[in-house]
Every structure is written in C-alpha cells, then in structure tokens.
Design a protein that fits this description.
The chain has 422 residues and is of the alpha+beta class. Helix content is 38%, strand content 20%. Strands 1-5-6-11-10-9-7-8 form an eight-stranded mixed β-sheet. The radius of gyration is 27 Å and the shape is elongated.
C-alpha cells in the first residue's frame, strides 16, 4: 500500500510547544495562576467536549459554523469548546442552590474555534477565564481588572505598555434610545458596530439598513461613536443616567485599586457577544499593533438562557497567543527567563561526583539537568548554551582532585566556585 509523505507540521491553526515555547507559555500561565491566587479566585476545570445545544443556546445556530463539532457514535451532537463561559454557566446552574454567592472562580482552558487566522489568532489557544458570579456592584469588574493588571506585571509587562478600554453597553443603549432607535434593534446594532475596523462603514450601514434602520438613525448611530469622553456622554445621556453613574463609580473605585492610569473610556468598545449587559472592556498594547490582549464584561442574563436563576456575573477571557506576541515585542525582550543548571563531566570517572552534586542541588530545590554520559567540553557547553538553563557546571579530573568545580552563568560568563560532594 502506498502512502503520501506524512507532514511533520501540526494541523493548520494548531500548535506544538517545544521547550523554548514552553518557557513563554509557563511565564504566562504562572503569572495567571499567581494573580488569581493573590486575588482570592478559586480554580475549576471542565471537560473540553461540550454539548452543541448549550453553545447554540448561548450564541445561536451560527456558532456551528465557527467551531469544531461532531456526532459521537450514539448520535449526540458535541463540540470542542470555543470558550469557557457557557460551560461555567452550566456548572453554576447545576449547583445554583448549593453555592454561597458571590463565587470567584478561574481556569486556564484550551479552546478551539475554526476561523480565519491572523497574527495573534489561532484555531486553538489557551484562555485564562476569571469570573465573579452573584455580585451586582462594580467592585466585581474592578477586582477582575486589577487581577488582570497584576498578571501582566508578573509577566514583565510595564504599566505604560497597555491600556484597558472601558464602556457600558447600558449607556450605549440609553444613547441609542435617545436617538430614536427602538430597544428591539439594539442587539443587532451592537453586533454591527462591533465589526467596525473589520469591515467598512458602508458594510456596517448595510447591516443596519437590513435591520430596518433608516438613514437618519444610522447617521445618529455613527455620530455616537464620535463621543470621546465620559463628560461628552453625560451631555447626551443626561445627569440622571443610571449607566453613566455606574461608570463614574467604576472609575472612582479603580483609583483606589491603583489601576486608573491604565483605564480609558471608549464608547466604541462594544463586545460582539449578545450576552453582555453592562460594563465591557478590552485591553490593547499602547501602540495598537496587536489584537486585544484580553476582554470581557458583565453578563447578568446568561444563566437564564440555559434555564438557571437570574444571577449577576462579570467575566474576563485572556488568551495566551496575543500576550506572548506583545511580550516578545517589548524593547530588550529576547527570551523568557532561564533558570536552573546543567551538569556534565569529562570522563566516566567523574560521573559519581557529577551525580552527587546534582542530587545535592536538587535536594536544595534547584532545577538540574544531569548529563547521562560523558561529553567533551565543547560539546557540553554548546548543548548547555542552547538549552533553557541559566548555569552550567562541567566536572573534569582536576575538579574532583580539588574538591570544587566552576559554576558558569551562560549569559554573563561569570564563574563561581561550587564544592563537590563526597
């Protein structure tokens, strides 16, 4: 039987993670877990295969065009999860009578979505989800954004390297209503305006016309996107606007959290998913060279769409693809930090000394890669230099005789003495 040559590449849009890639992934994952823990979020996880019906109920029939879905051998319609929020809603609804609200949960989930790939977008990615379920106040939004900011700091991202753009869909709904656009059209208007930058304004106008909006309402809709400040929004919405009051409270609280310098009001931030009901946000690198680093917002009605009790909720989705691109683009950023030590030896007679030293350093908590056979010095240091380790120790006959070897920092070439174990 003849076979076509097998490709060594992963399926299109998927990724392999070699050790050098894992350095970056671990840097991001460790920062996520640390920030979630510091802010009191509890970990959870779920199956990667989800009911297609659940996903369609959340996003509509068109979701099946964007995700990997299939039937199992029993004819059940299933899918690889495209995001975690519907699964979280299902889990919360299943135990809604048993949980003590509010709950603060987080997970790092692998998600799949079949869509056109661009820089920063794959068909598979890992996403850090943080959600606060059962809290009505804007404290939930600010708590989540402060945790996200803490994770970026832990990754080595300077505060001035990104901005978090914030809006309130309820405010935009108020302004649309004042422009004469009936509430039943708002969801379609949000969806159309969220496409700005991805399609032309003429195409957006065509979508709005298809929804039944006339020329004047469409003109007023685009005019709203020209609002630059919260004060300008207040002039249009009126001093008694509940949505405006919520935003002012949000920004005041962000000052106390110490993240106000990274927040910007942006009425064009809408978020396309229909389940968002209030404050929404997206973070971008300051120069806007990349896609959004993370996004999210309040979704107070999602649980009811799957049969749960009405429950306020705020969530954030933070993918791993874009943030690694942003980190690599920072000035002077050449690699995710290396650590640990590689130990090698010249002849078989030095294997015992090398093994004893490796054992002692591992007992002390160090990461040690011990060579399992003798190597020539040039071969050893070439291998060590291309590894993910920071230091190297090479033991020869003279080192054993002296009872000490040299520990070399592979970046700076500085050497320090390290005693050998007897």
């Amino acid at each position: 039987m003849n076979f076509t040559p097998l490709s060594f590449d992963p399926p299109r849009g998927m990724r392999d993670f070699y050790p050098e890639d894992m350095l970056w992934r671990n840097r991001v994952f460790d920062a996520w877990r640390h920030a979630a823990s510091v802010f009191g979020f509890q970990p959870y996880d779920a199956c990667v295969v989800e009911s297609l019906e659940l996903l369609q109920r959340k996003s509509g029939e068109e979701v099946s065009e964007q995700i990997y879905h299939f039937e199992d051998k029993s004819g059940r319609k299933l899918a690889l999860r495209p995001e975690m929020t519907p699964t979280l809603a299902r889990m919360i609804a299943a135990r809604q009578g048993q949980l003590a609200f509010p709950v603060k949960w987080f997970t790092i989930a692998q998600c799949f979505r079949y869509e056109r790939m661009t820089r920063g977008r794959k068909r598979e990615h890992y996403q850090w989800n943080m959600d606060v379920i059962g809290e009505e106040s804007v404290s939930a939004e600010v708590e989540i954004l402060a945790a996200a900011a803490a994770s970026l700091k832990a990754m080595g991202m300077p505060d001035d390297a990104y901005k978090i753009r914030v809006n309130n869909r309820a405010l935009l709904a108020e302004l649309l209503a004042k422009s004469g656009i009936a509430p039943e059209h708002h969801a379609a208007v949000f969806l159309a305006l969220d496409k700005r930058g991805k399609i032309t304004d003429e195409e957006i106008s065509a979508l709005l016309e298809a929804e039944g909006l006339g020329e004047e309402p469409i003109r007023k809709t685009f005019a709203l996107l020209g609002v630059q400040t919260l004060d300008q929004a207040a002039t249009l919405a009126g001093a008694d606007s509940p949505a405006l009051a919520t935003l002012r409270e949000f920004f005041a609280l962000s000052e106390i959290y110490g993240i106000a310098d990274r927040l910007v009001f942006d009425i064009a931030v809408i978020r396309g998913l229909a389940y968002y009901t209030g404050i929404v946000f997206e973070a971008f690198d300051t120069e806007r060279k990349f896609r959004a680093i993370f996004g999210g917002g309040r979704y107070d009605s999602l649980l009811t769409t799957i049969g749960g009790t009405p429950t306020p909720a705020v969530g954030l989705g933070f993918g791993d693809v874009v943030v690694v691109e942003v980190l690599k683009d920072l000035p002077g950023e050449t690699a995710a930090g290396k650590n640990g030590v590689v130990i090698g030896y010249m002849f078989a007679e030095q294997r015992e000394a090398a093994t004893r030293l490796a054992r002692a350093l591992r007992v002390q908590g160090e990461t040690v890669d011990l060579m399992l056979s003798r190597q020539k010095p040039k071969q050893f240091f070439s291998r060590a230099g291309s590894s993910t380790f920071a230091d190297a120790i090479f033991i020869g006959p003279d080192d054993v005789q002296k009872g000490a070897a040299k520990r070399k920092n592979l970046a700076t070439r500085e050497e320090t003495d390290v005693p050998l174990c007897t």
